[in-house]
Design brief:
Chain A is α/β, with parallel strands linked by helices and 417 residues long. Chain A contains 14 helices and 15 strands. Chain B is α+β, with helices and mostly antiparallel strands and 152 residues long. Classes of the chains: A alpha/beta (417), B alpha+beta (152).
Chain lengths: 417, 152
Amino acid sequence: MTAIQPITAARTLDVARIRQDFPILSRPVRGKRLVFLDSAASAQKPRSVTEAERDIYETGYANVHRGVYWLSQRATGEFEAVREKVRRLLNARETREIVFVRGATEAINLVAQSFGRAFLSAGDEVLISHMEHHSNIVPWQMLREYKGVVLKVAPIDDAGELDLEAFEKLIGPRTKLIAVTHVANALGTVVPIEQVIRLAKGHGIPVLVDGCQAVPHQAVDVQALDCDFYVFSGHKLYGPTGIGVLYGKAELLQAMPPWQGGGDMIRSVSFERTEYNELPWKFEAGTPHIIGAIGLGAAIDYVQSIGYDAIAAHEADLLACALRELSKINSLRIIGQPRHRSGVISFALGDVHPHDIATILDQDGVCVRAGHHCAQPTMDRFGVSATARASFGIYNDRDDIDSLVAGLRKVQEVFRL
Amino acid sequence: MSELRDLYQEVVLDHAKRPRNFGAIHAPSHRADGHNPLCGDKVTVTLTMADRHIADARFEGAGCAISMASASLMTEAIRGKSEAEVRAMFEEFHAGLTAADEGAAVSALAELDKLAVFGGVREFPVRVKCATLPWHTLVAALDHISEPVKTE
């Protein structure tokens, strides 16, 4: 018998205390305890995030980068301080490499529209994987229509892992950009992004990494990775919606043309000629999401106060427990069996449609996602039109898994599985 | 569990598992596709009309238990009915699932015999579109609409 090593106390996070930081978790849903298992879609927010937003509105709000008055300077200071926080979070070399955007989707569109339109020509290739979110597929298809570039797709195997050998074979002389996810949102696969980047660098090809499902769960070091672009959304990192980050290497961002024009992104404007602002503001036309950025700063502080080591250990424990319990349910099939998985489990239960599963779970306050998870090519690869998906955040505990399992037993009961 | 039992009644589960009139009519006089993009439910309805009455109705597609059972029971219920009767049935059905007033909803469904099993859907507003997709598709077939219809 192999004894399972218990997680040491020093690395364990106090989930009961964390749950108290999230006001929504103590509010009952239909009289039941809220069991929120859809953090991969969007995470709940700790009180410190909503308080930071309210605080700036009530005590320090003004537009940024404009006023000479004290209040505007203070707001500008707070806003720009978050940029530095993001730099530290990703260990970027320079603060000007951090561009605020609405979310990862906008970040990828920015790269496609700016980098893509400027540096790619007809016949050039963009290489992605088969398990991308629609937001890392459609912007490249739009570029294909506009510029005639070719979209290549690296296959995944039955376990839901990237086929690295096939991936490498798809790299050719016309490959001009590689855009891959760090963690697949529908399957939970943690992509060996280090190897992907190493292969790309061997051919001198820039790499964009979609870090939406990685940043909430693990430390990311863009210098160690040596990726050229890294994108994520604030709302999956316990921050507000409408704010996200594009990291880009300074020399690339500098060479890229702006993609939206307006205020803030200019140095001087006349009808004859406009001089653009320097990085990162060149890419931030118009009044930015000041409050969102400040909320994101509070979210980063919150996550770092807990620490990625503790978060990773807690979520690994939950994942192992969930996989073990779910495997005991007859007729339950987990879609994707990657060796290295983040806190996402997609599954099917007999031939019950995922929407019927989600409706029944919802009756007991258990929130899971049902559908194609904005990853229809992934669904097609596994021959399903939709799955049910449970995903974890720092506030989930073993009671949540028990509730999920009890709910699934009820589905079996209703559908006589 | 009682609300769930209202939603997933025996008749609904039975028709979802063993749908009646499943398949396509060869050379139908009417045909339409329905699709709920958000949940992925897809249904195709084919009809043969004779003397402005429905002589045969079949469906094929894939989706949740509610949409499959609704399509199955619909094809049974509309056979032999006139076009005008079928349109009126859809109005009653829709009212039975969505009317704000419970009494109005119950009396609308009472006219529809077996279709009254969908009364429980009214308690699950996000699932109404599952139950009505086959009916929207049926009406599109009668109206000769070639674009796939949606209920979202």
